[in-house]
Amino acid sequence: WLGINIFLFTYYFLFFDRDERYFYTRAILGSALAWARASAKCLNFNSMLILLPVCRNLLSFLRGTCSCCRRTLRKQLDHNLTFHKLVAYALALLTAVHTIAHLFNLERYNHSQQATDRSLPAILSKMHLQGSDKWLNPIHSNQTTVEYVAFTTIPGLTGVIITLALILMVTSSTEFIRRNYFEVFWYTHHLFLIYFIGLVIHGVAGLVRGQTEESMEEVHPHRCARYLTQKDEDCSHDCCKDPEFGSIPAESWKWVLAPVLLYIFERILRVCRAWQKVVVTKVVMHPARVLELQMQKKGFRMEVGQYIFVNCPAISLLEWHPFTLTSAPEQDFFSIHIRAAGDWTERLIDTFQQQNLEMPRIEVDGPFGTASEDVFQYEVAMLVGAGIGVTPFASILKSIWYKFQQADQTLKTKKIYFYWLCRDTGAFAWFNDLLASLEQKMAESGKADFLTYRLFLTGWNASIANNVALHFDTATDTVTGLRHKTIFGRPMWNSEFAAVAAAHPRSVVGVFLCGPGGLAKSLQKSCHQHSSLDPRKVKFYFNKENF
Q1: Per the domain annotation, does 54 fall within a domain?
Q2: Among candidates 309, 274, 280, 277, which has minimal Cα distance to 293?
Q3: What's the rounded Cα separation, in Å, for the pair 281 and 359?
Q4: What is the block-wise mean pLDDT of the chain (547 residues), using blocks of 10 residues?
Q5: How far apart are CA 253 and CA 266, in angstroms?
Q6: Structurally, how many domains does the chain consist of?
Q7: Cβ(101)–Cβ(158) below 8 Å
Q8: Helix-strand-coil percent breakdown of the chain, rounded to 5?
């Protein structure tokens, strides 16, 4: 992607800097023409790409069709939002280059129009007086200012509008805004409609012009340019005729037509699925203000680790929020766990707590694929969840329980290590029953070693510590009631990875994370450090959930 951008920019910069059709245009504008046009081509290319990473149905389809492909190829699909952000930053940078270059262009157009000498730029700027279709300089009056052109012409006005839309979208996409003011991010991101409409219209008026092919044949600039400044009234040679100019054809629509149509189809598909009736079969309120919704929907099929988008019209008709499915594919319902983390989730939890006879209507779009779908493709898997980030692994653990229940012999995975990091003890209550049931079922199946789990409490007070010290010798943990004792503090990842590598010296280990970026960097670093260069020995592959 970066290489293509560099190639496009370099190619079109040299093209517009040397193409003879723009000889007279360069006489007025200089190198700013090449800067503006090269950045415009790259803007078109990146505008073509920006929508593709957010076509969730397309990505899920590709993930399904790539199930037999190499693991690295499927993993690239999990970086869709990272790629989307990179393309957005490129658009912002290229827009700045394009805007600055055109500000120079307008200033030079204005300067050439006001010039009174017999220089080539001055003569070219007065050619509009000889015919309405012969102009090269879009500024036809000495009273016209750069600001006037920027806010009254189609290219100028649409350029201002799409630049403002892009600035709002980029600034509202920062981590702080998305985490704390998701509604601001959600609504401003829909300015992409204005961006694409403005982009298609932007080049229609064609303020930047070049010499036509017919005129080039009659009065080639290399042969006739010098005569423009020395022309006599009784001129009779071949170069007496004035050059004629035409607009550069608008091309943006050619670049963005296919992805825009694909995205429209994507949105139509989402709307159709959202209209399908969803029945909320059970509502459970867990500690730490976590709401569990169990739902049913006709034709709904899921895989482990997938996620859905949820809308509650009683709260907002337009807001859709992503939630990981916590149910297993083997269950006859699908469920999500919603933690209070913002205005929308707070209002949703309050709505379900206060509901009387009628259950609030819920709309669901999905499910969509994630990295966790590949967990059963590995012989050994390390699952790391932080807080509510445990939800995709709840689905995986539930599915394992059903596979043991049904004595599934096709299960490729031989060992799972599960790490759950929580700040408060109340969070462990969400899936205590699931872990306890798994412990019992694996013991009954003679596979007690299949699952090793470690629960880490990263925040505690003196009373919790004293209680643990008093009951240190009990068979079960005083915090969770499980057989494995809760560990106070954070994991020593180097030690954990070293132990897994020693226990499985010739295995491919999948490391799956649903948690913050800082933890992702630590795990990714550990994966690189503990993977052997020998392909016959242990190899760690890092996978992270992205929404």
Answers
A1: yes
A2: 280
A3: 10
A4: 88 84 85 89 93 85 62 70 91 93 88 82 78 75 80 88 93 85 85 92 83 83 77 70 82 90 90 87 82 89 87 86 87 87 84 76 86 81 82 82 73 85 72 72 73 80 59 58 72 89 88 85 90 84 78
A5: 19
A6: 3
A7: no
A8: 55, 15, 30
pTM across the whole model: 0.76
Same domain membership, residue 470 and residue 417: yes
Assign residue 351 the CATH number of its domain.
2.40.30.10
108 and 146: one domain? yes
- Give kind and range of the element (H or E) at residue 422: strand 415-422
Quote the crossing angle between the two packed helices 192-202 and 32-49, to the nearest 10°.
140
The predicted structure's pLDDT at residue 478: 57
Same domain, 348 and 479: no
Spatial strand order of the sheet with 363-368 comes to 321-324, 307-311, 363-368
Residue 223 · residue 11 · CB < 8 Å: no
Tokens 């760690």 label which residue? 540
Same domain, 97 and 203: yes
- Is the residue at 236 inside a domain? no
> Can you say how many angstroms the Cα of residue 147 is from the centroid of all Cα atoms in its chain?
35
Report the run of H or E that residue 284 belongs to, with start and end: strand 278-286
Q: Are residues 189 and 334 in the same domain?
A: no
Token duo for residue 222: 């290399």
* pLDDT on residue 99: 92
Residue 132 is predicted with a pLDDT of 59
- pLDDT for 45 equals 94
Number of continuous H segments (helices) and E segments (strands) in the chain: 21, 14
pLDDT at 154: 87
Angstrom distances, CA of residue 485 to CA of 368, 425, 437, 456, 472: 35, 13, 16, 9, 9
> Would 96 be classed as within a structural domain?
yes
Same domain, 249 and 127: yes
- Residue 389 lies in domain: 371-544
Q: What local confidence, expressed as pLDDT, does residue 375 receive? A: 82
What length is written for the chain?
547
DSSP string, 187-242: HHHTTHHHHHHHHHHHTSS--SEEE-HHHHHHS-HHHHHHHHTS--TT--SGGGSP
DSSP lists the bridge partners of residue 338 as: 291
How far apart are alpha carbons 112 and 129 in whole angstroms? 15
